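Researcher: Next sequence.
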Amino acid sequence: MASKTSTININVDTEIKDKATTILKGLGLNMSTFINMALTQLVKRNGIPFEVINPTPSKEMLESLEEVNEMINNPEKYPRYNNREDLKKALLSDD
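Model: Next structure:
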């Protein structure tokens, strides 16, 4: 006996759809197959089959970003090296 199918109409941001389509094509899938896979996993797991989070940068990441901005805004405070040997010497020196 053939299974019944239903149609789902959804609105999706065009840019997201285009990027997703490109990724799926590279995986040998189309949007319909992916959505069917996702819905099947939703049912099998009795929940969303992937982690849903609101990513928040860690304290270390925020500090690193501040440091990078400092270096970009004040390049004169930071040494520059023209080659690996000069960098290696600077790293190995006791200064």
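Model: The chain has a mean pLDDT of 92. Residues 15 and 36 are 21 Å apart (CA to CA).
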